[in-house]
């Protein structure tokens, strides 16, 4: 009788453990199915925190995603890249070109680099400096284009030798919220 109670209690303990294992397994499978469902129906939009090109501690950063670019971020990047392209002296022109080319799309790299190299050679040959004063900006966020209107001034030494009403047209593409320059053109305004 004693051995029968022992066997019965051992069987009961094993059944209890078996039930416990089955309950834990059922809970685990249920949680895994719930997590799988959450992953399948999760919004796949990636957000990236971008820091301005010439970041200082007092400036803010912008949050962008695959599908949209904030207008503040777009205007800031366009203005900073335009400054690199249009505020040049014989001393800083090569540095500015290298900094600008870091933000150029691979498909436009050759064309933009060739134009910047040509401009640098011309600038060094004349020992001139170019500066562009912005008077107005036309931004098209949908097409990621911006047009800067203003005055391009040329200096040789301290003397201003030329002043032209000029516009710069910039076109960008966005990859994961990051802007890449695909064209930079200068035209008479």
- Poorly predicted ranges: none
**What is the ordering of alpha helices and beta strands?**
HEEHHHEEEE
Q: How many E strands?
A: 6
Distance between the termini: 109 Å
What is the arithmetic mean of pLDDT? 83
> What integer value in Å does the Rg equal?
31 Å
Sketch the major β-sheet.
Answer: 4 strands, antiparallel
Tell me the strand order in the biggest sheet: 3-4-5-6
**Global geometry:** rod-shaped
Query: What is the SS-derived class?
Result: alpha+beta
Helix content: 40-55%
Strand % is: 25-35%
Describe this structure in words.
The chain has 189 residues and is of the alpha+beta class. It is built from 4 helices and 6 strands; from the N terminus they run αββαααββββ. The protein has helices at 2-40, 71-86, 93-101, 109-126; strands at residues 47-50, 62-65, 128-140, 145-156, 159-175, 178-188. The strands form 2 sheets. A 4-stranded antiparallel β-sheet has the order 3-4-5-6, with helices on one face. Strands 1-2 form a two-stranded antiparallel ribbon. A hairpin with a 4-residue loop joins strand 3 and strand 4. The radius of gyration is 31 Å and the shape is rod-shaped. It starts with a helix and ends with a strand. The mean pLDDT is 83.
């Amino acid at each position: 009788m004693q051995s029968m109670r022992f066997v019965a209690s051992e069987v009961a303990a094993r059944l209890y453990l078996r039930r416990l294992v089955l309950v834990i397994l059922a809970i685990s499978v249920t949680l895994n199915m719930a997590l799988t469902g959450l992953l399948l129906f999760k919004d796949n939009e990636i957000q990236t925190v971008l820091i301005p090109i010439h970041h200082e501690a007092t400036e803010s950063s912008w949050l962008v995603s695959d599908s949209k670019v904030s207008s503040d971020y777009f205007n800031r990047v366009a203005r900073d890249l335009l400054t690199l392209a249009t505020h040049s002296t014989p001393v800083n022109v090569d540095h500015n070109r290298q900094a600008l080319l870091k933000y150029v799309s691979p498909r436009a790299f050759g064309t933009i680099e060739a134009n910047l190299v040509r401009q640098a050679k011309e600038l060094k040959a004349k020992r001139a400096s170019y500066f562009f004063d912005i008077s107005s900006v036309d931004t098209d966020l949908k097409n990621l284009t911006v047009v800067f209107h203003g005055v391009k001034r040329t200096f040789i030494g301290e003397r201003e030798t030329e002043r032209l009403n000029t516009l710069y047209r910039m076109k960008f593409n966005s990859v994961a919220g990051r802007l890449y320059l695909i064209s930079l053109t200068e035209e008479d305004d």
